């Protein structure tokens, strides 16, 4: 099995580390800035075997044409189910004339477990032969699952020549920076989260703060069930799995079903009246204070700074 990780400007997509781990530590990094991206993978994943294909700006048709011969000997080709991974995987499957198992949470030599009905059901799919699959970001930990994997030692190949022509790709007219408050939560590097301890009337302020800090806004199930924040912003085992570097919790107790979808943020800040709740226990900075008042004070301080 090999992971194919599409990268843009040296940046790894969501789920790159998990995909590499699921593939037993072997990956082909393709796109623009592969040296930098491969360096990040090596730093975060340790012993792995990487090859690179420096192929320029993302073009799934062209990439698939170039990748086909390089991965055709692999029984399973696994991509992260990031936006680019989801674009590239079906084209690569067509190029290799193989079935595509999309949205998997586990992948093995004979098939995969894929998520169906918006996460309500796991379906076991068996395949008699080679296939392509995508792995949902957050479906597993980035640590290797099988003992002995990943492959000991590091083998970093020279970049292969850029791929030539391929099937028609969409013409890119421009690239817009994402609106951080609306960005797919699973890809957000910074998240501000609303729990039941943050009054509903403060949510607009939380979204405004998110925009200012370049952070996405998420919520607990109590908040989404109350209809205060859309369900696609719910973090947890029955919501979205996230992997932010910074997570700031306003009035979140830290129930197992919530933190189960939180990954391992580098920094956790929690604002809560209860100093002994689980969210405060896992915080690097635990602020014992009213969530609404703290949010208002933070917004006012940023306003002051911006003013002068
Ligand atoms: C099958 C199942 C699946 C679930 N899936 C999910 C899921 O995917 N995601 C999820 O989030 N939950 C999920 N839950 C619900 C989960 O168990 C918790 O009920 C939920 O996460 C709690 O949300 P909360 O922290 O906002 O609320 P609470 O647990 O009610 O916590 C509120 C917190 O706010 C603090 N607080 C109160 N007032 C203030 C104030 N003025 N200032 C500061 N702090 C204050 C309190 O001390 C408390 O810690 C699931 C439950 C089940 C049974």
Rounded average pLDDT: 88
Strand-pairing-aware structural class? alpha/beta
The number of distinct structural domains comes to: 2
Q: What is the number of beta strands? A: 14
Element-by-element helix/strand order: EHEHEHEHEEEEEEHEHEHEHEH
The portion of residues forming beta strands comes to 15-25%
DSSP helix count?
9
Strand order of the largest sheet: 7-6-5-8-4-1-2-3-9
- The CATH topology of the largest domain corresponds to Rossmann fold
Output the CATH homologous superfamily of the largest domain.
HUPs
Q: For the report, how would you describe the main beta sheet?
A: 9 strands, mixed
Listed once per kind, the bound small molecules are:
flavin-adenine dinucleotide
Helicity, in percent? 25-40%
Per the principal axes of the C-alpha atoms, what is the gross shape? elongated
Distance between the termini: 56 Å
Q: Provide the CATH architecture of the largest domain.
A: 3-Layer(aba) Sandwich
Parts with pLDDT < 50 across at least 5 consecutive residues? 145-152
